[in-house]
């Protein structure tokens, strides 16, 4: 049995998202802070309507096939084939060590930074293979932002943290405006607007994490990768970040790794369940995708026994 | 309560009490030894300061502090009218040569540190770092003769055609820089390597290139350690004796022209202390006065560095 075909999605068509889950009420009007709608991304995406004959309800932004990652001799994940839809939240769940984060880091070539890491298969983003020879990983990361497990603000002022991305990529425009817009989108502006010059290390953990989100948003990425963004936060901060994700989803796609199944159920449209496969001949553990479907289906009516055991808490 | 449990309670109690008293005896012994070790270093420092102070006070009984601190002529070993106790030439020699050295060592050391911490492959780093540390620990007399017999005649005179005298400040200063470069590189590299990987990842994730990550994130994040490296390098240069003694000459000077001879505080002490000056004389006391001045300069530098480092210190969890 091949795990990659176990899911209901062999042709990489994206299953229809469930109806909008009730998102916490009042959403501030972000219109003045958002990038213009006809940005360059939209122009490029007109070519990417997905397979003509397929009843694709959602545009594909990421199309990954047979992705595998080796760390030296060790194969960390294999045969991961997943597609992510535009302006959707996709959750990656599964037990520790199943390669969710490893896979996530393939999506913006962060694995390049780990000595000995090798990525195989195809990661197609807007029709372009991110691992093609001519691709510059630095350009990839400008468009595909990332938020990490532990808040990692730079030891600089709040302002300089947010301005870092725009500065290094040479973004044009008024930096004050760019910073303000990012902080508003990161739901942090009201709390920090009077202390932008203070060191970011003086903020609470939850604020730091929202700062990191705002920092990632400052360069106007169209995808945000989140690697267990709430695992170091208390429930109130977690709730705020979940609300924030619901707002961000209006404009960008989000892929989130989480250990918290309630969180996956709350925030995501689709969920992919990963598990660990122990090879018989070797003692190594390799991560594979068991099932990928609409979040509702994964949590209420999974088609694989392993998924059911995991989401009902019998395993992991 | 029955008999069995009473017995076992007593046994447990006896056990606990015995263990405690045995351990506390051992612990107080170790504590005492550690205290003695700490006391030894404090006592040594105190003894040094007291000795220096005694001679210094006696010296200032005969020479006015103004003549010492503001005088521009340092000829303590001459007699009669020729004798003068102005320390400024020695201070100038010390700082001027240190300055020449740092002009070489700061850029070289920091660039080497950035390369090793952020760009070098692990294999290269593993080879180069121990070599650097070895270089930092090399006896300075080797550097001194290198300056005198190679830098002055070959590099300065033959290659660059600079008309330097045999003993000159330029060669001494440049080699002083070579001496402290590995120290600066090694300590600054440690500081940059201790910047958490998560900061680098955060910067890479925002589309920063390698050089941007190194210069805009890692370098500022390691600033306190880098400042410490620079100050450590500077105090090593200030206290350095042998290189200047051998290659820099022995005539104090306040000249800006580095091709002539210079003398630093440390090299004056070394040159004078090995001479045959009788104890208890004013000439003899100059050794201690200059020593005390050097001590104060170094102390000041350390105090400044402690403040700077704690001010810019960034604690990473």
TrEMBL record, chain A:
Residues 62-301 form the ABC transporter domain. Residues 1-12 have a biased composition (Polar residues). CDD domains: ABC_PstB_phosphate_transporter. The keyword Acetylation does not apply. The keyword Protein biosynthesis does not apply. Keywords: ATP-binding, Nucleotide-binding, Transport. One of its GO terms (biological process) is phosphate ion transmembrane transport. Residues 1-25 are annotated as: Disordered. GO terms for molecular function: ATP binding; ATP hydrolysis activity; phosphate transmembrane transporter activity. GO terms for cellular component: membrane. PANTHER family: ABC TRANSPORTER I FAMILY MEMBER 17. This is Unannotated protein. It comes from freshwater metagenome.
UniProtKB/TrEMBL annotation, chain B:
The keyword Protein biosynthesis does not apply. Pfam families: BPD_transp_1 (PF00528). It is a multi-pass membrane protein. The keyword rRNA-binding does not apply. SUPFAM superfamilies: MetI-like (SSF161098). GO terms for cellular component: membrane. The chain crosses the membrane at residues 33-53, 95-119, 131-155, 167-192, 213-232, 286-304. CDD domains: TM_PBP2 (cd06261). Residues 91-305 form the ABC transmembrane type-1 domain. GO terms for biological process: phosphate ion transport. This is Unannotated protein. It comes from freshwater metagenome.
